[in-house]
């Protein structure tokens, strides 16, 4: 009895210390980003590694690899994304969306040499972008705190869990040959990073504070995808 | 000198065009203006060779008059807008406009051969506040939705928000602005914007 009371006191002291520490370092920050100081530190780490190593390498890939090869690589990984868009769409009960995606996978795998050519887009089947994080959202899970992960970029607890689910479900993780698997992971990562390059120069131009700008853009974009474009227009103030 | 005259003539032409088109529907206006701008970008040799000053000039003349920058600034400021003096509001609007025009010019200079699909307007004909939806079709990539929040004011439609793929420009700046105001007050924000725009020269 006595022990539990002192425990409770300890906890409440601990909580208020945390609370004060929070106030001292961040002030009334964004409610979506309770770990902002930590995230900002991670963002700095990311900037150093990405800016000095990854971005120059990816830029070289974009500048010197023939465009058709880049497109083929993108199509290959896009086909896998479509498969997961279909699966997670089904999980969320979005049958229309899942149907489109499944159609894309079948068409591109059969008629596009295993997904190397995006025949479906030329045929006017729109590309979906559903994923595990959105499926969890459709099931009612809140996004949770915002996180910035070095090398991987912005996410939330919910979307990050989605990444883990995706990483474990493959299909590349099922490849028996380790070198092939690692090469595919590497090429996939380069392709993913390359897609972000053009948006990045716009962010550089637009942002007063890139961290805040990227955070709000990421959260807005995820909301928009989750509600399939039917987020009520924001008219706060005025 | 001749540069100044050219800009003035262009501005006059823009004003004239505006009054001629005062009665057009908002979606028709978005289509006319964006096609005009994209056509200019495609056909102007200076822009094609990467002349940023020229592209900004085009933006200033053809695009800027169709935006309500004061409303955009007020929306991005949120509740801090009313804390600002009229003088501060004016400076904020000017600097924010410069920043937006530059950002948009940068984005447009990456414009290649995308086509734009203009969605039919679904709004009450008497409405004075509508969303015009467009979609940019890119080769081999998912399409990008670009929506314009538009309001009719004094008989003319003006855009007060641009939403790219679900990311509202105005909302995106709200966090940034309130962060700056919290750190350095409204003057701090003005200073940051001015520095960002190149130190307030001119």
Brief digest:
The complex is a heterodimer of chains A (238) and B (202). Chain A is mainly alpha-helical and 238 residues long. Helix content of chain A is 70%, strand content 3%.
What does this structure look like?
The complex is a heterodimer of chains A (238) and B (202). Chain A is 70% helix and 3% strand. In chain A, helix 2 packs across helix 8 (178-206), helix 3 packs antiparallel against helix 4 and helix 3 crosses helix 8. In chain A, strand 1 and strand 2 (153-156) form a beta hairpin. The longest helix of chain A is centred in the first third of the chain and has 29 residues, at 36-64. In chain A, strands 1-2 form a two-stranded antiparallel sheet. With 238 residues, chain A is mainly alpha-helical. The model of chain B has no long low-confidence stretch (mean pLDDT 83). Chain B is built from 7 helices and 5 strands. Chain B has 202 residues and is α+β, with helices and mostly antiparallel strands. Chain B is 56% helix and 17% strand. Chain B starts with a helix and ends in a 6-residue tail after the last helix. Chain B has helices at residues 2-20, 26-43, 45-48, 52-63, 69-77, 86-108, 169-196; strands at 115-118, 129-137, 144-153, 156-164, 167-168. Chain B is globular, with a radius of gyration of 17 Å. Chain B has a 5-stranded antiparallel beta sheet. The chains are: A mainly alpha (238), B alpha+beta (202). At the A-B interface, helix 3, helix 8 and helix 9 of A face helix 5, helix 6, strand 5 and helix 7 of B.
